[in-house]
Amino acid sequence: xxxxxxxxxxxSAKQPARLKVGFVLxxxxxxxxxxxxxxxLRLASDxxxxxxxxxxxxxxxGSTRHLITSSCGVQVAPTSDFxxxxxxxxxxxxxxxxxxENPVDQQTITFxxxxxxxxxxxxxxxxxxxxxxxxxxxxxxxxxxxxxxYKEFRERxxxxxxxxxxxxxxxxxxxxxxxxxxxxxxAALLVRKYISRDAERNALEVLQIEKxxxxxxxxxxxxxxxxxxxxxxxxxxxxxxxFVDGSMPIEKLAAMVGLSRRQLERIFIEKTGMSPAKAYNRxxxxxxxxxxxxxxxxxxxxxxxxxxxxxxxxxRTFKRTFGQTPSQHRAAALRAx
Length: 337
Prior knowledge:
single chain, about 325 residues
C-alpha cells in the first residue's frame, strides 16, 4: 500500500459515523421546534458554519413533495419521499396545533409503523408524541409533553404514561420533548452521543446557547406556586398540579422524583418551610382560587375538581388558607375587573 493510500485509510477510520435523521412534519407543525432541532444538527455537522453535511445528514421526508404549512404560516418542502426507514438513525416527528384533525396522512402512519418494525428509534417533538401515541407507537414508553398539553394527552390516551415536569425524555426506542428550545437540547444530546462533545459545543455556541440542558431539567414555566430553587421540589409540585384532585399519594410522588417519603419531607421543609402534604394542599387551593376568579362554576363543582367531597369542607379549607371564603374571593375578583 502506498503512503497516501495508508493515510486515506487512517483518515477514514478516524471519521465518526454520520448521524442521519429523517424529519416528518405534521400539518401546522411548530416551526421553532423543527428549526432548532435541524439547525443543531447543521452546526454540529462541520466546522466554521459552512453548512456541510460531514458528520450529520438530514432529510424532510413525506408522502408527497407538497409544501407543508407550519402553525405560523411558513411553508417547508419535503426533500425526500418515504424511503427505507433503516437509512436513518432516528425518525423525528414534529407536531404542532392539536386542533388539526388529521395532522399526518395514513401513508405517514404506515411509514412510522414500518420504522418501528425495523427498530428505528422514533422521537416526538412538541406534540409529535400525540401523533406517535395515536398510531399506537408509545405503548410501554413514557411520553414527555409540555405542561400546556399534559391534560389533553391524558384525556386522549389515558392508558399511556406521560409526564410534563421534564424538558425531554429518551425511553429506549422512543424519545419525546416538550418543544420550543428543548428541541435543541434533545438534538444536542444526539450530537454528543453520535458525533462528539466538540461538535455539540460548536453547535450550541453558534446558537448562543450557553449549555445543553439534560433530560432531568425541569420545564421552565410560571406555575401557581413559588419558584423554589430545588429541581426535585419543582418536579414534585408540578406533579401535584397535574393531580390537583389530591389523588397522588406522597409516597408515589417521592418515588417519581427519586426519593423516599422521608427524604422528600426533609427537602420540602428545608426548601419551602412546609411539608409535602401542606404544599399539595396549597397547590390545590391556588388552583381553586384561579378557577373562582376566572369562571362562574358552582362551588361544589370547584370543590370536586380539587379533591373535596363537599362545598362546606372546601369553604373551610379555603378560608383557613386565604382568610376569606370562596364567595368573598369571587366577589372581590369581579369588583377588580
